[in-house]
Write a structure and sequence with these properties.
The complex is a heterodimer. Chain A is of the alpha/beta class. Chain A has 15 helices and 8 strands. The termini of chain A are far apart. Classes of the chains: A alpha/beta, B alpha+beta. The structure holds iron/sulfur cluster (2 copies).
């Protein structure tokens, strides 16, 4: 059997299903800026330079991938081409040669890779650690892998030494919980024998967290990790929705509508438009987000409390 | 001269029926490519008028074919629709320079109708915004390039739903209004085109006109089901309804005729809200019946259920088991059916689309199933649209043709309620002239494999298959959902010269240089 999403642009039939949940399509209605447009253009000889605007516009939210009936690696297609583009643009890699300090205590069975912004918010980080079982259960990686995440998004090579430095402590644990959706998928490929979970999934699986959600809540799933493991996570979130009665940023296909706040592709206006679309026809009394970057995005538009799922308790 | 002996190798059987083309002259099915020197002047004038014309090959190539995948053509340039004013400029400029304009929505035509053989390809999906929803009067005003699925996304936020739409999520509203749009509730609510209350149209000469049953009625008559010949639909006002999850019931038959009789019995008695037939060849015929409300479902159970002659899943499994046990040489077919059942049935019951036993997102469920499990990525779906009376005969004849050509195929049958006040709209359309209150449609779809697979068929085979199906229509007096493009040779044969000439005269008047969707119908 062909592994999931192993196919390339040549398999594109032009069905347009990838457009239906794509935030860029929603905001531009320009087929050139969609997986359909890119794949068909490549079938007709387009190069990375020809597709530069299209490649820059993609938020890497991944909503197109589960929709594609041809199982094309649509996100990989963008990052691969971005890599080619970066070479031609002579882009500066995000690596400065300085390796992060090693993580101290790595004896607990779970390692949490928090984003930089989360580490800047010690109260929230502490609350998350407590929910996940406290210091005996979880250690926090001192290496957030932000530079690696950027390299992954831009299709840039990751120096072997840097990658090994990032992965070595993770190999010694049983479970890795990661906040950054882009790292989530890469870690699944890099670390075998270690369970990888997104922070959103890990927290929302906890009974004490579930019990704090109710039908007035709008729960905002982090889209990148969700779409990368869609077939499995769809049942996780469906059961959460059933149990709590909360609404979610899911569309009719059960793709997560992204705010795109943590993507670097678009400006504030685009993000606000996405937030307005998520809120359209909904009147939540509270918004609970998995991605920290979504808090200011919702606060700018909505008039209700916006909290991180880690702050629910 | 030595002529080498060529090993025919593993070429698949190519069952071109020797009599498939009897009634129709072999003709070039794709039109000649338009390629006039005036293009350069046109492009300059259009760009000067502020319309972006995209001429890069990798963009024009994006639109090289349609869902049918048998017609290929390249436009000289692509215009992504922005608004009516831009399309008006395009049409008036194209008329001045006699440049053909081919309009494309979701590109779900099957006969090359949305493929541009030169000239401009107008990509209507650029106009995909919902403009306003009137929840009190249950209407929506939308740009016409929008996919039905995207419209449903917006409507659902207001707890509303469209009335009927094609099972395919990426059909566009404008394209569907031009040809029909059949849903599993069409026996009750009519085709999608009949849901349109008013349209904004850019005429082939560039005027922007609002039309409806009361305003510019002649244009409205020709825009509904008019195969895109008389204007570009830029906006549409459609009826909508409150959203309801639906309760599904499936009944399985081994006889196509019995299943159709039961379908028509239910439709004639308004016994269900949704009804249709989907088959695995003619071996397993699935009559699907569904309800918007518990009351309607309860009434069905009391009044009609006992009259249906289909079986449940267990009953059909036992029957099929016995059938194939007695025919072990057909084991391969039995395994195919079992494999198909195992992949298809769970798709209709995905838990995330089911609540309290009801299907919550029928459009997503059906459309996913269509894309993943019906036919192939190349849609070859000739159809027959007939009056109620002729439908069983037409379907059985079509089924026999399918059997002759393909190992595996599927049929989709559904009723279409007609609106007597729209009789004028139905002339020279998919609605057969002898249908009174309800028409019926059947699509015949081969299950095809990927290139080099055993169930891969040549273009000639597929064309011959379509011809044989369409010949049935000529013989019994039917119509077709897809009579344009490669199948336009049938137009005069089914509609007659008088009707076609009258429509041609109207077209010439509306579109003096015959530039809009050229060669699709006329
Ligand atoms: S990753 Fe997201 S933004 Fe990029 S093409 Fe796919 S759906 Fe669109
Ligand atoms: S969903 Fe996949 S096959 Fe369909 S148009 Fe998009 S990329 Fe192509």
């Amino acid at each position: 059997m062909m592994p999931l999403r192993s196919r390339t642009y040549t398999a594109c039939s032009g069905c347009s299903l990838c457009l239906l949940s794509c935030p860029v399509w929603r905001n531009t209605h320009d087929i050139r800026l969609t997986p359909h447009g890119r794949a068909k253009a490549m079938q007709h000889g387009a190069t990375a330079i020809d597709l530069a605007e299209s490649l820059d516009s993609c938020t890497l939210c991944g909503a197109c991938e589960p929709a594609c009936p041809e199982s094309i690696d649509l996100v990989g297609m963008v990052t691969g081409l971005r890599g080619e583009l970066a070479l031609q643009r002579e882009a500066t890699p995000p690596f400065d040669g300085v390796l992060p300090a090693p993580t101290g205590n790595i004896s607990p069975p779970t390692m949490l890779i928090a984003e930089q912004s989360m580490s800047d918010n010690p109260g929230l980080l502490r609350s998350i650690i407590e929910q996940l079982g406290g210091d005996v259960a979880v250690s926090v990686s001192s290496d957030s892998g932000t530079d690696i995440s950027i390299a992954l998004s831009d299709g840039l090579p990751i120096p072997a030494e840097r990658l090994e430095h990032f992965l070595a402590p993770l190999r010694t644990t049983l479970r890795v919980i990661v906040a950054d959706g882009r790292l989530f998928y890469a870690l699944k490929n890099w670390l075998h024998g270690v369970t990888i979970a997104s922070l959103g999934e890990a927290l929302s699986a906890l009974p004490q967290v579930r019990s704090k959600l109710s039908d007035g809540d709008l729960y905002v799933i982090e889209s990148v990790a969700f779409h990368r493991d869609h077939e499995r996570l769809i049942s996780h979130y469906d059961s959460l929705r059933l149990a709590s009665g909360c609404s979610m940023n899911l569309d009719l296909q059960r793709m997560a509508v992204p705010t795109t706040a943590s993507a670097r592709a678009h400006g504030r206006e685009f993000v606000e438009e996405q937030v307005r679309w998520i809120l359209q026809g909904r009147a939540p009394t509270r918004i609970v987000v998995e991605d920290l970057a979504d808090i200011p995005a919702f606060q700018r538009v909505a008039d209700v409390p916006v909290i991180h799922v880690g702050a629910l308790l | 001269m030595d002529i080498p002996v060529i090993d025919i190798g593993n070429l698949p059987a190519d069952p071109v029926a020797p009599d498939a083309l009897l009634g129709i002259k072999r003709q070039q099915t794709n039109p000649k490519r338009w390629n006039e020197p005036v293009w350069a002047d046109f492009a300059t004038a259009l760009t000067a008028a502020g319309v972006e014309l995209i001429e890069q090959k990798f963009v024009t190539g994006t639109f090289a074919t349609d869902a049918g995948g048998t017609a290929y053509g390249l436009p000289h340039g692509v215009v992504i629709a922005k608004d009516a004013a831009q399309i008006s400029t395009l049409m008036s400029t194209a008329q001045r320079y006699r440049v053909p304009v081919t309009v494309r929505g979701g590109g779900l035509t099957t006969e090359g109708e949305s493929v541009a053989f030169g000239g401009v390809l107008l990509d209507m999906t650029g106009m995909s915004r919902v403009l306003s929803i009137d929840a009190a009067n249950l209407t929506v005003r939308t740009q016409a390039g929008i996919f039905w699925h995207s419209l449903a996304e917006v409507l659902r936020r207001e707890n509303l739903d469209y009335l009927s739409a094609p099972l395919n999520m990426t059909s566009s509203v404008g394209g569907t209004i031009g040809v029909g749009g059949i849903d599993v509730n069409s026996a009750r609510l009519g085709c999608s085109a009949d849901q349109a209350i008013a349209l904004q149209v850019v005429t082939p000469t560039g005027e922007i006109v609002e039309c409806s049953d009361t305003q510019n009625t002649a244009l409205f008559e020709r825009m509904i089901l008019g195969y895109g010949q008389f204007g570009v639909i830029t906006e549409a006002t459609l009826k909508v309804r409150p959203y309801q999850p639906i309760a599904m019931h499936y009944f399985y038959y081994t006889s196509l005729a019995t299943a159709i009789e039961d379908l028509q019995m239910l439709d004639a008695n308004d016994a269900s809200d949704y009804s249709g037939i989907l088959t695995m060849m003619d071996k397993v015929v699935n009559l699907l019946v569904a309800f918007d409300s518990d009351e309607r479902e309860a009434a069905f159970k009391v009044d009609w259920l006992h009259r249906l002659r289909g079986h449940g899943e267990l009953g059909i499994s036992l029957r099929m088991g016995l059938y194939y046990a007695l025919r072990p040489w057909r084991m391969r077919e039995a395994l195919y059916l079992r494999e198909r059942k195992n992949t298809l049935f769970p798709e209709f019951r995905r838990p995330e689309h089911t609540r309290s036993g009801k299907m919550t997102d029928r459009t997503v469920v059906f459309s996913r199933a269509v894309w993943k499990h019906w036919g192939s990525r190349q849609m070859v779906i000739p159809d027959l649209a007939t009056s109620s009376e002729k439908f069983i005969d037409a379907t059985l004849k079509g089924n026999a043709v399918c059997k002759k050509y393909f190992r595996y195929y599927t049929l989709y049958c559904v009723g279409i309620k007609l609106r007597p006040e729209h009789t004028a709209h139905y002339e020279m359309s998919c609605i057969p002239p002898d249908a009174v209150t309800r028409a019926y449609g059947c699509e015949f779809e081969p299950m095809m494999g990927d290139l080099n697979a055993e169930d891969c068929y040549s273009r000639d085979t597929l064309q011959s298959f379509k011809n044989e199906i369409y010949d049935i229509g000529v013989g019994i007096g039917a119509s077709y959902y897809r009579f344009g493009g490669m199948m336009k040779g049938y137009i005069r044969r089914v509609f007659g010269d008088e009707v076609v000439d009258r429509h041609l005269a109207m077209k010439r008047k509306a579109d003096p240089n015959m530039i809009l969707n050229r060669d699709v119908v006329f």
